[in-house]
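Q: Here's a chain of 115 amino acids. Please give me its 3D structure as tokens.
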Amino acid sequence: MTKLIYKIVPEPLWREAQTAGVFLGAPVDLADGYIHFSTAEQARETAAKHFVGQDNLLLVAVDEDKLGSALKYEVSRGGALFPHLFAPLELGAVVWVKPLPLGADGVHVFPDLPA
């Protein structure tokens, strides 16, 4: 069974990655030296904490098994383990990409997320 992890990405940045054939990361990822991901359980909180009010976002689902040893789970907020990728994201590891729209209440509307 495929275990998915998730990345919230502004659509223009993701379109650049598609053109390049690889996702190098958002500015925060480049500054930190790794690509930040969330588990299904963490994704909504990540959106609320780091993307509040932002529109034109995409939710990218990635097969963690295709990331190899460059993927590490590290302690982050609240002591939770978050997936961090210490390499560029090869687009072959992407399972799907879906819009992450804002609802009328200003909260992002997520699709059903399999863990």
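Q: Can you summarize the key feature?
A: The first strand starts at residue 4 and ends at 10.
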